[in-house]
Amino acid sequence: MNINKLQSNLKSGQAYLIVSPENRRYMTGFASSDGYLLVTNTEAVFLTDSRYIEAAQNETDPCVQTALLTSLSEQLPEYIAKLGINKVFTEAQRLSVAEFQKLCEIIPCDCSAELADEALTALRRSKYKEEKEKILAAQAIAEKAFSHILGFIREGVTEREIALELDFFMLKNGAECVSFETIAVSGKNSSMPHGVPSGKKIETGDFITMDFGAVIDGYHSDMTRTVAVGEVSSKQARVYETVLAAQLKGLEALRPCLSCREADAAAREVIENAGFGDYFGHGTGHGVGIEIHEEPRLSPKSSRILEIGDVVTVEPGIYLPGEFGVRIEDMAIITENGCENITKSPKKLIIL
Questions:
Q1: Is residue 68 within 8 Å of 89, Cβ to Cβ?
Q2: Crossing angle of the two packed helices 159-172 and 129-150, in degrees rounded to 10
Q3: What angle do CA 205, 207, 210 make, to 5 degrees?
Q4: What is the reported pLDDT for 92?
Q5: What are phi and psi of 256, to 5 degrees?
Q6: E strand map for 106-261
Q7: What pLDDT is stored for residue 293 in this prediction?
Q8: Element (H, E) at 145
Q9: Beta-carbon neighbour count of residue 186 at 10 Å?
Q10: Strand partners, 73
Q11: Within 10 Å of residue 293's Cβ, how many Cβ atoms?
Q12: Distances 260 to 234, 265, 307, 341 between C-alpha atoms, Å
């Protein structure tokens, strides 16, 4: 159980206070926009307000006690005293300075921003069997959406219509929600890695980059494909093949004990050697799980080491301002002997 693993990090008298929706859900199995989870080495209490209390009592992990939250400033000190807590480690990365200061004023003992974020990050990184199954299920829906959208794209359809069609298909076919705001950008707009779908109509010769994913039981999928309409120029074809080669090289490099910096370099060197290094500005990938972006991150700035069970994306791209862009993204699970690519959609250039 996730709670049990977290509790093993604590000594008597210590506690974690978990406040972020993502980590509360990870620990309790219950999704809500409000609540506080207090975890000691032997007990866990989830405080949530009247909007969620009945559902929480029915859905929260049985090892977690649920209680109606009416006044945090009164109830939190009461539970801290009742459970014999003398030091509280609270999340910091997801709190504003004002929020952290407010908690410190309420908590009647030593309150620290150390350890909680580190412990939760380490715990969430390596996905266990049930987590992988949820990610695979989410990815399967996204891939069905990609197959569907290939029959929807045509000249005259707008970027916004493509994005909405992807979203509708995923939601209609079992997604709890979409992983993030779907990206569907075309032509010159595809040179913006996180461009917003617009009313621009698809034209012959356009590249269309689509970045999207589905969520199943809180777990995300993430994939990107770039397709063309009608025809492509020799430059477009060369850029596409360069990105594809980089993406395959990045996947090939993945293995336990490899640094994230080295994983990024494997893909980046292909693009640099082709003369497009100045047009690949983001990291090669990131972890995916109960959040769409989590550790580890495949970046030139990261010295973290890949571990068995990590689920990461590999998504190099080339973006030529005012011309076009290409990105190709798969998800992979780090295994004992390398990685398992869990994205099965075709990657060879598709011209519709």
A1: no
A2: 130
A3: 150
A4: 85
A5: -60, 150
A6: 110-112, 177-178, 183-186, 207-212, 214-216, 219-220, 223-228
A7: 96
A8: helix 129-150
A9: 29
A10: none
A11: 14
A12: 33, 9, 10, 17
CA dist., res. 15 & res. 34, Å (int)? 19
In total, the chain counts a number of residues equal to: 352
Six-digit token string for 294: 């989590």
By the 8 A CB rule, do 311 and 221 touch? Answer: no
pLDDT at position 61, please? 86
On the question of pLDDT at 95 being above 90, the answer is no
pTM, full prediction: 0.94
Exposed / middle / buried, residue 210 (Cβ in 10 Å: 0-12, 13-18, 19+): buried
The residue-averaged pLDDT of 26-52 equals 95
Pick the closest to residue 291 from 94, 143, 48 (CA basis). Answer: 94
Q: What 3-state DSSP class applies to 147?
A: helix
pLDDT tens track for 111-167: 888 788 888 988 999 999 999 999 999 999 999 999 999 999 999 999 999 999 999
Single-letter residue type at 68: L
pLDDT bracket for residue 2 (50, 70, 90)? confident
Q: Which regions of the chain does DSSP assign to beta strands (E)?
A: 14-18, 36-40, 44-48, 65-68, 87-90, 110-112, 177-178, 183-186, 207-212, 214-216, 219-220, 223-228, 285-287, 294-298, 311-314, 317-320, 324-327, 330-335, 338-341
Question: What percent of the chain is modeled with pLDDT above 90?
Answer: 89
The C-alpha angle with vertex 75 and arms to 14 and 20, in degrees rounded to 5, equals 65
Give yes or no for residue 228 having a pLDDT over 70.
Answer: yes
Going from the C-alpha of 241 to that of each of 113, 244, 313, 327, the distances in angstroms are 46, 5, 19, 11
Residue 305: is it exposed, middle or buried by C-beta count within 10 angstroms (0-12/13-18/19+)?
middle
Q: Which whole number is the average pLDDT over 202-208?
A: 98
